[in-house]
Write a structure and sequence with these properties.
It contains seven helices and ten strands. By secondary structure, it is of the alpha/beta class. The chain has one domain: Rossmann fold (3-Layer(aba) Sandwich), CATH 3.40.50. A seven-stranded mixed beta sheet has the order 4-3-2-5-6-10-9, with helices on both faces. Strands 1-7-8 form a three-stranded antiparallel beta sheet. The C terminus is likely disordered. One of its GO terms (molecular function) is S-adenosylmethionine-dependent methyltransferase activity. It holds the Pfam family Methyltransf_11. This is SAM-dependent methyltransferase. Keywords: Methyltransferase, Transferase. InterPro entries: Methyltransf_11, Methyltransf_Superfamily, SAM-dependent_MTases_sf.
C-alpha cells in the first residue's frame, strides 16, 4: 500500500527495484486498459495517438535490425516485425514480457525480447541500425545519459534513435486531466524525483524529471545529433483520456516530446527521411 507521494533523492538501484516491481504489479491492468488503443501489432508514439505508420520517424525499417527499449508487451516491436524489420525488444518487467509472449501466440507475429535494464543493454557494439523507445525506460532511470550512451554503443555508425517521453512541461502541472489540472504547481527547474513509497518507507515507484535543455545535452553528450524535436498536437476527434493526458489539456499544453537523433556523421534531412 502506497502512502502520499513526495519528492526526494533516490539511487539507481532503488529506482530500478521500484519500477520493476511497479510494472510487474500493474502490467495486467495496464494491458487491459490500454491494449486496444496500442493494438497488438501497432506503433503508437504517445497518448495523443501519433502513429509511426503515418509519422515515419524511423524511416524505412525493412531489412533493418531494430532494438525497442522498454518494449512492454511488444506492440511497437511487433509492428516493426510486420514491416520487415529484424526487431528485438528489451524491458525491465517480466510480467510485461509475459504479456508479450501471449500476444505473440495470439497474433502469430513474434518479437524476440529479453528482460534487462536499458542502462546495461545485453547486446554487442554496433549491432543495430535503429533503436526506438515509446515512453519506455528513459523517464524511469536516474541516469538518462547512461542509457543514451548504451544506445550509441549498440548502434552502427549513422544509426538512428527516436524516443518519446512525457513532455517536461507536465512536471509543473498536477496529475489531473480536468480543468483543475491546468495550473502550475511545481517549478519547472526542480529536478527532484517523484517518489512513491509504502508504509515501511520502501520506494515503490520513481519518475525522474529533465528539462528540454537537459534532454538535448544528454543526446549531444552521448554522441548523437538531434535532427528533430516533435511535440504532437492533440488531434481532432481524439477524445481518449489516458491518465493526465486529455483533450482539455492536450489542446492547450504539450503532453509528449519526441527526440529524433542520429549518431554524428549521418544527419538526415528531417522526419520521414528514407
Amino acid at each position: 500500500m502506497s502512502v502520499a507521494p513526495g519528492r526526494r533523492t533516490v539511487s539507481e538501484a532503488e529506482t530500478q527495484r521500484a519500477n520493476r516491481g511497479d510494472w510487474d504489479r500493474i502490467a495486467d491492468e495496464y494491458q487491459a486498459e490500454h491494449g486496444e488503443f496500442l493494438r497488438d501489432v501497432g506503433f503508437v508514439w504517445s497518448p495523443e495517438g501519433l502513429d509511426e505508420q503515418d509519422a515515419r520517424l524511423l524511416g524505412d525499417v525493412s531489412g533493418r535490425r531494430v532494438l525497442e527499449i522498454g518494449c512492454g508487451a511488444g506492440q511497437c516491436g511487433r509492428w516493426l516485425v510486420s514491416r520487415g524489420a529484424e526487431a528485438f525488444g528489451l524491458d525491465l518487467s517480466q510480467r510485461q514480457l509475459q504479456h508479450s509472449r501471449r500476444i505473440d501466440q495470439d497474433t502469430g507475429v513474434t518479437l524476440p525480447a529479453v528482460c534487462a535494464t536499458a542502462t546495461r543493454i545485453p547486446a554487442a557494439d554496433d549491432s543495430f541500425d535503429i533503436a526506438c523507445s515509446a515512453y519506455g525506460a528513459l523517464p524511469f532511470v536516474l541516469d538518462a545519459g547512461l542509457v543514451l550512451r548504451e544506445v550509441a554503443r549498440v548502434l552502427r555508425p549513422g544509426g538512428r534513435f527516436v524516443f518519446s517521453v512525457p513532455h517536461p512541461i507536465r512536471w509543473t502541472l498536477p496529475d489531473d486531466p480536468s480543468a483543475d489540472g491546468l495550473r502550475v504547481t511545481r517549478p519547472y527547474f526542480d529536478r527532484t524525483p517523484y517518489v512513491e513509497q509504502d508504509e515501511e518507507g520502501t520506494v515503490t515507484y520513481v519518475e525522474h524529471h529533465r528539462t528540454l535543455g537537459d534532454w538535448v545535452r544528454c543526446v549531444e553528450g552521448a554522441g548523437f545529433a538531434l535532427f528533430d524535436l516533435i511535440e504532437p498536437e492533440w488531434p481532432p476527434g481524439h477524445d481518449r483520456t489516458w491518465g493526465a493526458w486529455s483533450r482539455q489539456r492536450g489542446t492547450l499544453v504539450p503532453g509528449t516530446a519526441i527526440f529524433c537523433c542520429t549518431l554524428r556523421g549521418a544527419l538526415p534531412a528531417g522526419p520521414g527521411h528514407q
